[in-house]
Amino acid sequence: MTVDQAERIATSQAVWAILFIILFGLVIGYLMKMSEHREKKLLEFYDKSKNESNIREERLLNHLEETTNKLGDISNIVENVQGEMVRMNARLENIERK
Question: Which domain holds residue 34?
Answer without folding.
Answer: 3-97
